[in-house]
Backbone:
C-alpha cells in the first residue's frame, strides 16, 4: 500500500488532543500490533512480552519496542506489556475510539466484495453508504445497505457523517469521484483504482494495488532464482526481512 500525505492536514474532528509525531512506518505497523493484541486478548492473556507480540505481529522485537516507545509505552521488565492498556493506547492514537463512517463509491465486483465484508465494524469502521453511477445498480441491497446514485453523494455525506471515502471505480472515473468526495468535505480517501489521484492539501490518500504487491513478490522470486543459479546457491536469508516487512 502506498500513500500520499499532505502536511498540516486539518482533519474534521475539531478539538482532538495533540498526538505524538509518529514516523509513517510506525503508524503503518500499529494496526498489525492491534490485530495481534486482540488475538492475544482473546486467548485470555493479560500481558505479553515484546518478543511474543513481535512474533504475533510478524515484525522484529527491537522495531516493535522502538515503535511502542513513541507512544510512551515501554512495558514492565520481566512482565511485558499490559495487553488491554496497549490496545487502548494504540486505538487512541489511531483515532479508533470513535466509529468512522465510510462511503464506498463504485459497487462493481470489488465494491460488492467490500460491501459484503463483515470485518470492518469490529475494526472501527462502518460502511454507511454505497454509491454507483450505473442506474441499474442503484436500489440493489447489499448487506442491509441500498446502493444510491453517486449524484446523491453530498446529501449522503451529511446524513451519514462520512469521514472516509473508498473508491472502487474503474481508473478513468477515479479522479472525478475523488473530486466529488473532496467537494463534499471528505479528507481521507482509500483508492483501489490503479491510478494516481490529485487532491488538495489537507486530503490524505492511500492506494491499494494488489497487482503492485504481486509485482514486488515477482521481483523477489526473480531475485531468489538468480541467486540460486549462482555458485553456492541462495544464502539463508530471512525473506520477510529482505522484503522489508
Ligand atoms: N486494488 C486492487 O488490488 C484491485 C483489485 C481488483 C480491482 N481493482 C480496481 O478496482 C476498480 C473496480 O474494479 P471492479 O472489478 O470492481 O470493476 P467493475 O467494473 O466491476 O465495477 C466498477 C463500478 O464502478 C461504477 N462506476 C463507474 N464510474 C463511476 C462513477 N463516476 N461514480 C460512481 N460509480 C462509478 C460502475 O458502474 C461499476 O459498478 C478498478 O479500478 C480495478 O482496477 C483493484
Residues:
Amino acid at each position: 500500500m502506498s500513500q500520499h500525505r499532505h502536511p498540516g492536514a486539518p482533519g474534521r474532528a475539531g478539538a482532538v488532543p495533540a498526538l505524538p509525531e509518529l514516523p509513517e512506518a510506525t503508524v503503518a505497523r500499529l494496526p498489525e500490533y492491534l490485530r495481534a493484541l486482540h488475538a492475544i486478548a482473546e486467548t485470555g492473556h493479560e500481558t505479553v512480552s515484546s518478543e511474543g507480540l513481535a512474533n504475533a505481529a510478524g515484525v522484529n522485537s527491537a522495531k516493535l519496542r522502538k515503535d511502542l516507545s513513541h507512544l510512551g509505552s515501554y512495558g514492565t521488565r520481566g512482565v511485558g506489556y499490559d495487553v488491554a492498556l496497549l490496545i487502548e493506547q494504540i486505538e487512541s492514537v489511531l483515532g479508533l475510539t470513535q466509529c468512522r463512517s465510510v462511503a464506498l463509491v463504485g459497487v462493481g465486483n470489488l465494491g460488492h466484495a467490500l460491501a459484503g465484508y463483515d470485518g470492518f465494524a469490529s475494526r472501527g469502521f462502518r460502511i454507511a453508504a454505497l454509491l454507483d453511477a450505473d442506474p441499474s445498480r442503484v436500489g440493489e441491497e447489499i448487506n442491509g445497505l441500498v446502493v444510491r446514485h453517486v449524484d446523491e453523494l453530498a446529501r449522503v455525506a451529511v446524513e451519514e457523517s462520512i469521514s472516509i471515502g473508498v473508491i472502487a471505480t474503474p481508473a478513468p472515473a477515479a479522479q472525478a469521484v475523488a473530486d466529488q468526495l473532496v467537494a463534499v468535505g471528505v479528507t481521507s480517501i482509500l483508492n483501489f483504482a490503479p491510478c494516481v489521484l490529485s487532491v488538495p492539501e489537507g486530503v490524505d490518500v492511500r492506494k491499494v494495488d494488489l497487482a503492485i504487491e504481486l509485482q514486488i513478490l515477482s521481483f523477489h522470486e526473480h531475485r531468489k532464482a538468480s541467486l540460486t543459479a549462482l555458485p553456492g546457491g541462495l544464502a539463508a536469508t530471512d525473506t520477510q526481512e529482505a522484503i522489508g516487512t
About this structure: Residues 105-111, 131-134, 137, 150, 168-171, 173, 176-177, 192-194, 208-210 surround nicotinamide-adenine-dinucleotide (CB under 6 Å). The chain has three domains: 19-93, 100-208, 213-243.
